[in-house]
Structure formats: structure tokens, C-alpha cells
Amino acid sequence: MKDTPLSNCERQFLLKTIEERKRLDGRETYDYRNIKITFGVDYGFCMVDLGKTKVMSQVSCELATPKETRPSEGMLFTTVELSPMASPAFEANKQSELLVKLNRQLERCLRTSKCFDMESLCIVSGEKVWRINVDVHVLNHDGNLMDAVSIVAITSLSHFRRPEVSIQGQEFTVHTAEERDPIPLSIYHMPISVSFAFFQQGSYLLVDPNDSEEKVMEGLLVIAMNKHREICFIQSSGGIMLLKKQVTRCSDIASVKVLEITELIQKALEKDRKARKDDDKFSFAESLPKEQITAQKLKEAPLEKMDIQETASEIINKANISPSTQGEHSPVLHAGGVGQVGEGITSSWGLEEDIEEEGEMEEKTTVKKTKRKGDVIVISDSEEEDIVVLN
Known about the structure:
Elements: H1 8-19, E1 35-39, E2 45-50, E3 53-64, E4 75-82, H2 97-112, E5 122-124, E6 128-140, H3 145-159, E7 161-162, E8 165-168, E9 171-174, E10 183-184, E11 192-199, E12 204-207, H4 211-216, E13 219-225, E14 231-237, H5 244-278, H6 312-319, H7 352-364, E15 369-373, E16 376-380, E17 385-389
Parallel strand pairs: 4-6
Antiparallel strand pairs: 1-2, 2-3, 3-6, 5-6, 7-10, 8-9, 11-12, 11-13, 13-14, 15-16, 16-17
């Protein structure tokens, strides 16, 4: 699938706006698009948004055998991937001209400029060193991929931490993150590329061209520089002739842009460092809002209070206190099933029903009468008589 080309009307309209020192997104000639830097939970994971252009980078390390020519230096490998998800112009598993150019420029930007100490990656000279892999994935393409790739690559390298290694003689031990804290890379400087698009044989130039502007440009100049105004590499493409004054002017503009981007990267790294320091676990549960019930924190329930005032007479009436007990003595409250102590007070244990049942049983039983006749006692009832003789 190929990208949709611009029509003649669109091409003429874009060139006309560039001649009038205007851009479709409202920027000035030397303005960059908004840059957003985010980090993941793992060290070395970084995402950069340059306007609508979005790239992702993941840095990893592994043990490897060093080169014979450089036995005490580590190795650095960079890879850029262009997937069809980023743009319909990209084809899967195909080495396009843009992909080859991005890989070469990124390698020159990081490896040739020697932005970090390669000898610090050596474990045992001539036997084991660390191999650093920088994998960059383009998620969305809207122009100026080189600048976005260089920013995300150096930011992820600055954010990455390698495992610590302890050496005893010829033996070494690689410690996990739970045993010992990982070690950051020794970054000397941050090379960042700035792209300049030229139009009408170099008569007009734009900084940070988007996808539409790249389709109508006639030449492209890429300058990689650090904040110390040291040029790491410079490359021109498109077949246009540039004057010395134009290159010098572009380098002056690049020095200002690189300083601003470097400060932005350092602020993002410092913010991430403070966040990890405040929260050692850095887990998903800690990132939840504290108002949710999953954070084990509930809001206090409001308690309604009512003022209740009762007079002493109302309390006595509710307690059913007999008039005989009201006087000088303190009132005594009667309650069912409670033993009472005091004059004129009887204890009630809730046995009134049992007493009534016993009274009914006594009425039903026959009453016996006894009579005394001399030495003879006669016990009689309504039916028969019993005679008991006393000796």
C-alpha cells in the first residue's frame, strides 16, 4: 500500500504559504512542535511525542564477547523499525530507503559521537562485556522522524539502568535488582539532531517540517549537536547547493533548539527520578486515586446529632414510678425482671404467669379436713374417711 500523493493544488497552496512566511499549523519558521516525554515502569522505556509524530524506545542489555580490536569496550547496537501502523507508506519486513537512512544517522549520532563511556561496560577484558541494544519503534509518522528518533534514543539511554556486577578474581556475579540497585550508564553528553527543510533552491527554510511540508521540500539538512555547541554529525540530502552562510545560520539555530530540548529532557528525567524515590514500589496500585475503595480509604460518614431535653417529671412518668416512692428518697425505677431494694418495693422476676398457674391448680385439688375424736383422728374428704388409731 502506498501513501496518497499530494495534488497539484495542494502542492501550490503549501508553497504559497511558505513564501508568505506562514505554516498550516500556525507555527513560525523556527518553531518546534510540542514535545512530550513519558517513561514506563521499566528502566529504559521511553515515548516521545513530537506533534503527531510518536516514537517509542526500549533499551536492554546482555552479556557478550567483545571485539578483538576493542577487548575492553562494550558494544552498542541501534535498530529502527517502521511498521505499517505508523503510515500506509511503510511496508512490513522491507528495507526502505528511509529506514536505512534513519538507522545510519542514529548510529552516527550515538556511536560515532561517543556520547557515553563504552569502557564502563567492560566486565572482564577480552571475555565479557555488556551489549546495549536500543530498539526504536515508530508508532505514528507525521514528519521529522530523525529528530524524534534521536530524542527518544538518548532519553531512553539516560533513563536506563544496567545490573551491577561483582568480580572476584576471574569470576563475576550479576546481581538482580532485588539484591543491588542497578547502575545508570555514564552519559557524557546528549547529541540531538535538528532538521531543516529547504524550498525553492534554498530560498526558504523551515525547522521541524511535518509530513506535508516534507512532500514538497527540495532538500533536507540534519545537524546533530549537543548543548556545548559541539557538532556530532551533519548531513545534507536532496541535491541542493547550500552556501556557507546558510549552514552557519542553521548551526546557530540548532544550538538554541538543542539547548531547549536538553533542558526538557533533564526535567523529565528529574521528575521521574523523584517519583520513583517517593514511591519505591512504583506499582499500579500506588497510582490509583486515593479516593477509591481499592486504596482502602473511605470517607467519613456524617453523624446527625439531636438535642433532647426532658424534664424530671417526664422521666418519672416514663419509668412508671409509684406515688409512694416519690418523696425525700431518690426515685426508684421499676423494670420487669429486675430485683428491687427499698421500702414498699417488690422484686419482679417475670414469674407472674407461673404464680397464676399454681393458683388455678390449688383450686382444682380437693380440700381435706381433719377431726379429732379422743384418741382417734379422723381424716375425711368429700368421698371417704380414713381412721388413724393413736397408741
